[in-house]
Amino acid sequence: MDLRPITNSLSVAPQITADQIAAIKAQGFKAIICNRPDGEAADQPTFEEIEREAQAQGMTALYIPITSGKVTDEDADTFGKALIELPGPVLAYCRTGTRSATLWSLSQAGNKQPSEILAATKAAGYDMAGVVRRIVNGGKTPTDEGDAKFDVVVVGGGAAGIAVSASLRARNPNLEVAIIDPADIHYYQPGWTMVGGGIFEAETTAKTMGSLIPHGVHWIKSAVAAFEPENNAVVLDGCRVVKYDRLVVCPGLKLNWGAIPGLVETLGRNGVTSNYRYDLAPYTWKLVQGMKSGKAIFTQPPMPIKCAGAPQKAMYLSGDNWYRAGVLKNIDIQFMNAGGVLFGVKDYVPALEEYVKRYDATLNFFHNLVSIDGKNKTATFKVSKPDTEPTEITTEFDMIHVVPPQIAPDFIRVSPLADAAGWVDVDQSTLRHKTYDNIWSLGDVMNAPNAKTAAAARMQAPVVAENMTADIQGRAPTAVYNGYGSCPLTVERGKIVLAEFGYGGTLLPSFPKWLLDGTKPTRLAWLLKEQILPPIYWKAMLRGKEWMATPEKVSAGK
Asked: Does the record's keyword annotation contain Membrane (predicted)?
């Protein structure tokens, strides 16, 4: 038998037979729903046969027959009521299980988020793409789609989305482009490390979204619920549908705070902070200033994460402040890294290790934060060292800087655009989707093996704009993304190790070594981070001015 759980109280299955019902009961089921009309196939048992055996086993059986491909709104309502009234758990079946999964999806649409429904059915092996608009519409058949249509639709108004929209318009002034994003505020997230180190004020890292949307680009202030790539459509919350000729997907990633039990309840108090949130970065600085002794823990979750150097940047800037304040000798700094190396590109590690020694920090590799008790100021880590059985340790803290695990947004993970891990599936050179030729992706949400940084998005935006323009003109891709990413590692106030690298850890410095050696801490790199990069972000990258971001061209031999 192929019984597929949808929830704890419902499983669905392909056609069952009467002689399987005893085994179904043995697995704990108390009721059966048949969603297959009698007579669809010659070898199909009738509902009467199923019901007779179910009653003999002390189970309830209900007949809600559905013609294949014709699930009505009323059918879904009937199914939903049955799930409430029948003793559970319930097994529903049809020929393949798809009709049963569809009925459940539509019946739950008014109570659950579309992403939750799509995730549950996808996990059971059922694709609900054909009814996604109805799911978004509360389970009902839409009567007015209210479609809008654009040459290019960009999902996401972060660094990647605004930059690529501006680059597209710079190349194609007549292109009808729309950005879909529900946010009112756009954040310069690379600045939050500096806020947590007392260098920037939080307010300088935020601007209104409306002030940044490129001239001539439409802003659809809404959240995306689902994608219909076969129909060139994006379905919004409320079941509005936006059609496109070409689509760019760049909504960023999801900070999964809820994955660590106890974290959400204690963030922003009890000494628990994170520079990964705008409102918490100032609390980091408050804690650092106020700490004169005790234990300070800095965590790093498993990859991939946004800006892999940020967890240790917080540690270095904090350590530097305590060093300058003369209290470092009284503070026990612990770096808890779920990975096995300090930094993924070995050329930068020696310089970083010198600062680890300066701040007398203890490096704890293969330590992943799994829960936190803010009231009692304890954190529990799972320790998974190679060739050893995993263990758990609990340690006290006076201050803890937490970096949450990070995943693709829910509506991306359950979409046809995602790979098995949930990220948008692109060619790592052209950033074009591997399945859908009129879709591109950039920024943190796509699956190319590069660092997830704003600097990477700055390089990716011209590549996507160039290749999409070529496609509009009927030409093959002309630009190649080499995996460039930059991580300015703030090792002390006034000095930075400027890590710049591409695919495979290849060093890709922007400046000659005699001017700026990125493998060593320099004041020039600090000036770049503090004074030059913010204006480049606001006044160049987000306005389609591609300073030092000219994409590589496809070679003639390719």
From this structure: no
